[in-house]
Structures are given as structure tokens and as C-alpha cells.
Design a protein that fits this description.
heterodimer; A: 176 residues; 2 domains; B: Arc Repressor Mutant, subunit A
Chain lengths: 176, 108
């Protein structure tokens, strides 16, 4: 018998990953369990009995020892569901009143967002170069170039906003 | 550079890091460290895998712990002599705190 599956499209920003985790937990409590992630914001769920599961996301940009990393989580009772880019999706069932966490102090949790921030900051100069590079006037691609440039400029503004939001998240965690 | 200065840049250690170093007095893999911390702290401290993986990466880079083996995709770490010195310095700090807290605490 094939299990019923549904696909959902939902978008969460990197600074709101706790909302994403809560949503996945909510889905599980309604009997929909995350199976895989195919595209950004695209989730595949499988129907099953409702469960009290905790979902947690980690961000590992360049794991040289990915297998060791996954093994450590597995040993600690976390099931690795999949990844979307550098975001790793884990799940663990709740036993008793204690909510299991992959990050057990704010210092290490802040480091996760620092890794997100570093990735974004690395891309910033590349984006800036594209936006500020002058077009060749009268060239064959002039119109197209200005359209792309406008889009990129808007993207750059949003990009800076994202940086600020993630930076704020780090500040919140390190202030306490 | 003077050795004591070298150590002080790592201090104070977080509670989790202190326990990780303490646990690595003997060679252990990640999950072994988690279990030992649970036992050493009498259940007051638990270290999640995200926190532990990050700590291993930083501590190995700083030379406070070193990989001494591997077993079924599990890295085994152990305290280095620098790690031992840093841990001792941290214990000294905590010892002063505990002594003061005990003597003042009696009168509170």
C-alpha cells in the first residue's frame, strides 16, 4: 500500500528558522511527516499517525567530515531527513516534558547564524560589482543590462536587509 | 609569546566547553562525550550534537583537543597538554568562585 503524500510550498527566511521548525512540528502533530526537500521552499510530507516530533535545522556550509557530522547526530538520537543547500534538517521524538535541542547554549547557537552570515558576506562584493559595473552605452545589450541592473539593485537592498536581520539574531543570542 | 597570556585568551570557558574538556581526559568519540557529561554533571548539563560538533571544530583548531583515532565514522578526541593547562586555569577560576560563594552564601 502506498502512503499518501502531499507537497507544500512555503517560504521561510534564514532568521526565522525557528518558525520553520515549529511549522514542521505542527505538521507532524497532524500526521504529516517530512520526507524530503526537493527545491527551496518545497516540502514533501507523508501521511502517518500523529507524532510529537521536534524538528531542528542546522547550518553547515562546508563539511569536510559530513559523515562524522551525521553520525554524531544519529548517535544522539536525531534522524537526518535531508538538506537544502547548507541547511540540514533533523528530527527527534519528544519523550516526557523535555524538548530536545541540537544547540544547548546560546553561544553555539549564535555560531550557527554566524556561519549563515559569513556565507552571505562572501557573496556581497560579487553582487556589488555586478550592480555598480557601468553598461556600454548603445551596446547591443544595453536595455537588457539596465533591467538586470535594476533587479539586482533591488535584490542588493533586500540582501542588506537580510544581513541586518541575521546580525540581529546573533546579537540577541550573545547578549543574554 | 608568554604562556600564561596564551592560555588566557581561551578563558573563561563556557560550562559546556569546560565539561567537554573534562570528559576528554580519556579518549572518547562524540556520543561518548555526551554520555560522560550527563554522568559527570549529574544530569545538570546536557550537550546537544550541534553544540558538540561546533565545539570539537573550534577546540581542535585551537589545539586544545586532538584527534587520536577513528571508529566507524566516529572521530575520537583527547585533551592536549595545552587543553589540560586551559582546563586547569578554568578550574582555578571556578574554585575561587565556589569558595567565595560558600563563605558568603552561609550568611545569606
Amino acid at each position: 500500500m502506498n502512503k499518501k503524500t502531499i507537497q507544500k510550498t512555503k517560504w521561510f527566511w534564514a532568521w526565522n528558522d525557528d518558525k520553520e521548525e515549529a511549522w514542521l512540528g505542527q505538521m507532524a502533530s497532524e500526521g504529516w511527516h517530512l520526507v524530503s526537500l526537493r527545491l527551496p521552499g518545497n516540502y514533501l510530507f507523508e501521511e502517518g499517525s500523529p507524532r510529537q516530533d521536534v524538528y531542528r535545522m542546522d547550518y553547515i556550509s562546508n563539511p569536510k567530515d559530513y559523515q562524522d557530522y551525521l553520525q554524531l547526530f544519529k548517535d544522539a538520537g536525531w534522524e537526518h531527513i535531508g538538506r537544502m543547500g547548507s541547511w540540514q534538517y533533523f528530527r527527534k521524538s519528544v519523550q516526557g516534558n523535555q524538548v530536545p535541542e541540537i544547540y544547548t547554549d546560546n553561544t553555539s547557537k549564535a555560531q550557527k547564524y554566524q556561519r549563515v552570515l559569513v556565507t552571505l558576506v562572501i557573496l556581497l562584493p560579487i553582487l556589488t560589482v555586478f550592480v555598480t559595473r557601468p553598461a556600454v552605452e548603445g551596446g547591443p545589450w544595453y536595455d537588457l543590462h539596465s533591467i538586470i541592473k535594476t533587479l539586482l539593485s533591488l535584490f542588493l537592498i533586500f540582501y542588506v536587509y537580510a544581513l541586518v536581520r541575521i546580525f540581529n539574531r546573533i546579537l540577541q543570542l550573545t547578549k543574554k | 609569546m608568554d604562556q600564561s597570556k596564551d592560555k588566557s585568551k581561551f578563558l573563561p570557558l563556557t560550562e559546556a566547553t569546560s565539561y567537554i574538556l573534562l570528559a576528554l581526559d580519556e579518549p572518547l568519540h562524540g556520543y561518548g562525550v555526551m554520555q560522560k557529561i550527563d554522568q559527570l554533571s549529574k544530569g545538570t548539563v546536557s550537550v546537544g550534537p550541534g553544540t558538540l560538533y561546533g565545539a570539537f571544530t573550534t577546540l581542535e583548531r585551537d589545539g586544545l583537543i586532538a584527534k587520536v583515532g577513528e571508529e566507524d565514522r566516529r572521530k575520537i578526541f583527547r585533551l592536549t597538554s595545552l587543553g589540560r593547562q586551559v582546563l586547569q586555569a578554568q578550574i582555578q577560576r571556578l574554585d575561587i568562585l565556589v569558595r567565595q560563594a560558600r563563605s558568603i552564601g552561609e550568611s545569606i
